Amino acid sequence: MKTYTLAIIGFGNVGQGLTKIISDKKQLLIEKFGINLSIVAVCDLYKGSLSNPNGLDPEVLLSDLEKHGDLKSTPAPITGWNATETIDKSGADILVELAFTDLQTGEPAVSHIKQALNNGMHVSMTNKGPVALHFPELRKIALSNNVQIGIEGTVMSGTPSINLGNEMLLAAGITKIQGILNGTTNYILGEMSSGTGYEDALKQAQELGYAEADPTGDVEGYDAAAKVVILGNLLMDLSLTLDDIDREGISHITNNDISNATSLNKHWKLIGTVEKHNDGFLASVKPEMISSEHPLASIKGATNAITYSTELLGDITLIGPGAGRLETGYAVIEDILSIHKNSR
Questions:
Q1: Which residues does residue 273 pair with via DSSP β-bridges, in sequence order?
Q2: Is 183 exposed, middle or buried (0-12, 13-18, 19+ CB in 10 A)?
Q3: Is the model's pLDDT at 191 over the cut of 80?
Q4: Domain locations along the chain
């Protein structure tokens, strides 16, 4: 059995979801995969920072957080480290980087990741910023230090879209990737098709936790554009930046537009597309009217879906959650299983 020690930076929903999975699935991971996961450090700007080289009890972490709203009174031999100290001093095998996403700079996550890789730590992240902005550089640092980077959670949460594309479909010749990559906008457009106005649908999405207080990243297509960059660069060997994406959001879509689509037996969806040609590429995020027969037309609510067009297998569509506490936490488990497999 192999034990992997984890240092978690950021203990919001995803960090808590991961901790719950580690608690609930400990025996399954040992019995089926031969791995034991031990959280040796947690560092969160607001909830507190603590470390124990012998492991922190995941159940205690979650119960203390529920009781007190933070981890500042949770007993541990070491407390008060900042992120840099946590990476340098925790001795963890894997850094789990769950800090907030910044699509302008990728910071502070990029600095955390570089530090961890140069320290000989593997990294798992659900943070889109570093991958969309700096992945070639990060991959180079990882290779030079003989460690691995897991990024499954950056696209479609724990639904294994990257693993499917990279591990299973790459040899089939991926020619085009098209998907509903943002659950918030899919939920809003679905509500509008039932007669709800845009502003009311957005408010509902915010109340349900699908949309942030400032929903710009979702409704104007920035979130989906980052995912198109990740998919195009990783699976098609492109060198896309966010500026290369022809991006358009959904805030101008009206109920009249929705009615017109319905009369044509079509549906409005915010579609992310990347397609490689002999003379270049097409990369976009924009609202599109798609026919009812299209594999993405039936995707409801905050669900995500991706269609890989391949030379050998035709179209393969994967449908699953694109967000969620446990769902995104599980993406880290997928990364760790991949790190374990490739380390052997």
A1: 178, 284
A2: buried
A3: yes
A4: 2-158+325-343, 161-321
Select which of 47, 227, 266, 269 is catalytic: 227
Quick one: tokens of 27?
A: 């025996």
pTM, rounded to two decimals: 0.94
Question: Which CATH architecture describes the domain 2-158+325-343?
Answer: 3-Layer(aba) Sandwich (3.40)
> Is pLDDT of 211 > 90?
no
pLDDT of residue 299: 95
Torsion of CA 165, 169, 171, 175, to 10 degrees: -80
58/105 Cα distance (integer angstroms):
32
Query: Among 96-100, 298-302, 333-337, which range has the highest average pLDDT?
Result: 333-337
Which are the contacts of 79, defined by CB distance < 8 A and separation ≥ 6? 48, 49, 50, 51, 72
Beta bridge partners of 271: 286
Side chain identity at residue 150, one-letter code: G
Per DSSP, helices labelled H in the chain are 13-24, 26-33, 58-68, 83-89, 109-118, 128-144, 161-163, 183-193, 198-207, 216-219, 222-236, 255-263, 325-343
Respond yes or no: is residue 47 known to be catalytic: no
**The predicted structure's pLDDT at residue 100:** 86
Domain 161-321 falls in which CATH fold?
Dihydrodipicolinate Reductase; domain 2 (3.30.360)
Pairwise CA distance, residues 77 & 106, whole Å: 32
